[in-house]
Each structure stands twice: as structure tokens, then as C-alpha cells.
Write a structure and sequence with these properties.
The chain has 24 helices and no strands. It is an all-alpha fold. Helix 2 packs across helix 3, helix 7 packs antiparallel against helix 17 and helix 15 runs antiparallel to helix 21. Helices cover about 75% and strands about 0% of the residues.
């Protein structure tokens, strides 16, 4: 009897699930990342004035800078905490309810942003940033898993990249909304921040229309009937047939049918960390997600304004050019669903990591000699564009969903949570350390990012098996022997 998932391909419900979760969680999270930088000076002035009026305390320049750093970075701390809670919420309440929790956190943060000006409260602004950070950590640990589990094997990658694609779209929208010509003004910056609630309205309007993950229902909850309903919602009533139980068992166990049909127990963090068979895949997930941040993508966008100014752009023109760079980042990410459906993960990851390492070295050299050789300013821009393109074909999307293809269902939520924790933790490190290192090292600040990409290239080359079109159980077996695993 054929035990493969129904070859339904794309259906209206499956496409809708991807769109709803992307618009309801991923895009708002990306928006909250991209919207904060441009109006930071206005936020700084308002915070200073509010503290003087409310507490009769005049902050020093250092204390005020520290406050603004806290407002920006507390979202990253929230991302770390949200990642840690992702595994518990995903198993306790399900993937679908975790998605709703993401939306509620984002809406609550938006209310805090609107209310902080009315209440003259810096504390509400900090709370709002913390709440959207919690939603961000939960989103990156749960949403790729939700989409991958609801997809047939051949579409896992295409659905898995919708989360990073949504983040990229949200960042660009946030950058546009925070321009002075839109809402990034002294009077309206809090409205720019609160627009996140408008973006995640999709989550509420469509919540009861989308199904829970069939794999979660069958394998974690032991709900065969509910799993059948979910699969029929996604692929149609006639996609299952009389042998739906066997199909659900395979769906629940990543391609490994079992005889007893008993639900798999969720794995605790400690049991996952102690299991030697899970050591290598956990290293891969954490290294790829953390290395994604340590590869310097956020630093590139931070530094790009000064590079554009060095070419002769005015400050305003440089900001618009930076927005244009974000748009190029978005355009480069648009073909990702098709790319992941047709190209091998291992090849794309190797090409991306190695190319990013080279382009970052070129960028370092061009910035270092930019005052000596006039045309090196254009080389800077060219290397940034190439870096963004190479980043988006592999290092950008693959880390978000690779855990769903390396781990079977039991340890998967914990592994995804650990990967998300690594991502937000490294994001926090870069955000805190980059300005100081840039001041101390100048152009050489990009060398550690290049080294990170080179190390990831070696790690992928030696230990990342090909996962496209493979049963999860087969992939898990390949990486179950730790650093002695042979994946080629």
C-alpha cells in the first residue's frame, strides 16, 4: 500500500494558510524590526522630556543613550524569552493557538505604543517593545514548524521560507513607514510603531478558517479524527481515502510508519540536550540560526547609510538609498518558494555561505581603501548588493526551517526553540557590540562576519545532509552519530 503523502500540491487552503500566518505574524514582526531605527532621535527627545516632566530628573547624554539602547534592544531580549517559551506553547496549546498568541502579543504591544504618548510613560514604550520581542521569538520558533508540518514533503521548503520572506517584507514596510515623509516625525512616530496592529489583523479575521497542524493533532494529541479533518481542510475531502490513518501516521512520524499508532511524547529541553543522537542536528540548527545573525546582515544595513554618503549622497538621499537596499533584499527573496521547491538545500547553503564570506572580504577591503581609491566607493555598493543576493538564496531562509527537516516530531519544538534562541541571542550580541567594534576597528569590523560565513561553509560541507525530498527519519539517522556522522 502506498504510504506517501497525497500528491495534492498547492491547494487554496494551503496557500491561504501560508498567507495568513505570514501576514498575521511574520510581516508584523519584520515591521517592528524595521520601524524603530529612523525615528530613534525623536524617541530620544521625547523620552528625555517625559522623564524630566514626570520625574524631574535630567538624564546625562550617556544615560539617555543607554535608555535608547534599552528601548531598541529590549525587543531582542524579548525574542530570546519568546524563543524559550516557543517549545512549551507549541506542544501545550498547539501550533495554531501559538500563532494566535503571537498576534495577541503584537496587538498588546501596539496598544502600548499608542498609549505611551497619552500616558506620558516611557515604561509603556519599553513594555510594548518587550511584547513585540516576545512575539518575534515565538514567531520564528513556531511558524516555520507549523507551515512545514501542514505541507506535503515536496512543498516543505517552499512553505518553510514564507516566515523569513514575511520578515523581509515587514522590514521594508517598517522602513518606509518610519520615513519623515510618512509617519516618522516628531508628532507621529508612535503611530508608526503601532501600525503593527493593522498588519496582524489578518490573524484574527482568518483564525477559525485555518486548521491545526495535522501532525501535531495525530502525534502529540492522539486525535486521529481531528487530524483527518485538518488534512481534508488542507487537501480536500477526496485526498485521503480509506487508508487515512496510515497516511496520518506517516505524516506524524516524518515518513516512518509505526505499528501501534501511539502519540509521540514531547521531548523536554534537558532530554534533547542529553541525547547524543540529537547533538549534531542541534548544533546545525543553532549554528545556522545564530550564524545567520553573525554573518553581518544587520550590520550591512546599519553601515549602508554612511557608505552611500561617502559616494556623495545627501543624508536624506542616503536614507532613501538604504530603503532601496531593503527593497533589493525583498526582491531577492521573492523567488525563494520556487527556489526551495526545486533546488537542494545543501547546495544553496554552501553557495550562500561561501559567497557571503568572499563578498564580505571584498567589502572590508573596499571600505578600508575608500579614501585612497575613488572607485572603491562603488565597489562597496556592488559588494553589498552581491552580499544581499547571496545571503537571500541560502543563509537567509534555510536556517528558519531546516530544523523541521532534521528533527522528528518529538524533539522538533525544542530544537526549533533552541535555534530561535540562538538567532535572537546572536542578534542581541551584534546589536550591542557592533557600534563599539565599528568605532574601534573601522572597516575591519566586517572580518569576523566573513570568518563566521567561512566556518558555516565548512560545517555545512562536512555535516549538513541533503534534506529536500527526504523522509525526516532518514535524515535524522544520517546525523545521529554526532561528529562521526557521514552525510555525503
Amino acid at each position: 500500500m502506498d504510504l506517501t503523502l497525497p500528491e495534492s500540491g498547492w491547494t487554496i487552503r494551503l496557500v491561504a494558510l501560508g498567507i495568513i500566518t505570514t501576514l498575521g505574524a511574520s510581516v508584523p514582526v519584520g515591521f517592528s524590526i524595521g520601524v524603530i531605527n529612523a525615528p530613534s532621535e525623536y524617541i530620544k527627545q521625547w523620552s528625555n522630556g517625559t522623564i524630566v516632566r514626570k520625574y524631574d530628573v535630567q538624564l546625562s547624554d550617556g544615560a539617555l543613550s543607554a535608555l535608547i539602547a534599552a528601548i531598541v534592544s529590549i525587543a531582542l531580549i524579548g525574542g530570546v524569552i519568546g524563543s524559550l517559551g516557543g517549545a512549551y506553547l507549541a506542544d501545550k496549546y498547539g501550533r495554531k493557538k501559538s500563532f494566535l498568541i503571537c498576534a495577541l502579543l503584537l496587538t498588546a504591544g501596539s496598544v502600548c505604543f499608542v498609549s505611551c504618548r497619552i500616558a506620558e510613560s516611557v515604561e509603556l514604550l519599553l513594555l510594548g517593545r518587550l511584547l513585540v520581542g516576545l512575539a518575534a521569538g515565538l514567531t520564528t520558533s513556531v511558524i516555520p514548524m507549523y507551515l512545514a508540518e501542514a505541507s506535503p514533503m515536496k512543498l516543505r521548503g517552499a512553505m518553510g521560507v514564507l516566515c523569513p520572506l514575511g520578515l523581509t517584507v515587514g522590514v521594508v514596510i517598517g522602513q518606509a513607514a518610519s520615513l519623515e515623509q510618512v509617519l516618522g516625525t516628531e508628532a507621529h512616530w508612535h503611530y508608526a510603531l503601532s501600525c503593527v496592529a493593522v498588519l496582524n489583523f489578518t490573524a484574527y479575521g482568518s483564525y477559525f478558517w485555518i486548521p491545526e497542524s495535522p501532525k501535531y493533532l495525530y502525534s502529540v494529541k492522539g486525535d486521529q479524527i481531528g487530524s483527518l479533518r485538518a488534512i481534508r481542510k488542507l487537501f480536500g475531502r477526496h485526498a485521503i481515502g480509506d487508508d487515512y490513518i496510515k497516511l496520518q501516521v506517516e505524516c506524524a512520524n516524518g515518513g516512518s510508519p509505526v505499528d501501534d499508532g501511539q502519540p509521540q511524547a514531547a521531548r523536554s529541553l534537558w532530554s534533547v540536550l542529553r541525547d547524543p543522537a540529537l547533538t549534531l542536528p542541534l548544533i546545525l540548527v543553532c549554528a545556522l540560526q545564530g550564524g545567520q545573525q553573525l554573518s553581518g546582515i544587520n550590520a550591512i544595513f546599519f553601515y549602508s547609510v554612511s557608505i552611500f554618503e561617502s559616494v556623495g549622497f545627501s543624508s536624506t538621499e542616503a536614507k532613501f538609498a538604504n530603503l532601496g537596499l531593503g527593497c533589493i533584499n525583498l526582491v531577492a527573496s521573492l523567488p525563494l518558494p520556487l527556489l526551495m521547491a526545486r533546488c537542494n538545500r545543501r547546495f544553496l547553503a554552501l553557495l550562500s555561505c561561501s559567497s557571503c564570506a568572499v563578498t564580505l572580504l571584498i567589502l572590508t577591503m573596499s571600505i578600508y581603501f575608500i579614501d585612497s581609491i575613488s572607485w572603491f566607493s562603488h565597489l562597496c555598493i556592488g559588494s553589498m548588493l552581491l552580499y544581499i543576493i547571496f545571503f537571500q538564496i541560502g543563509l537567509g531562509p534555510i536556517p528558519f526551517f531546516i530544523g523541521t527537516e532534521l528533527f522528528e516530531l518529538g524533539p522538533r519544538p525544542t530544537a526549533m526553540a533552541m535555534g530561535s534562541l540562538s538567532s535572537w541571542g546572536c542578534n542581541f550580541i551584534v546589536g550591542m557590540a557592533f557600534p563599539s567594534l565599528q568605532h574601534a576597528w573601522g572597516a575591519l569590523v566586517f572580518v569576523p562576519f566573513s570568518i563566521t560565513c567561512a566556518v558555516l561553509t565548512v560545517l555545512v560541507r562536512c555535516y549538513l545532509p541533503e534534506t529536500r525530498g527526504k523522509a525526516v527519519s532518514d535524515v535524522a539517522e544520517k546525523v545521529s552519530h554526532g561528529l562521526r556522522s557521514t552525510v555525503n
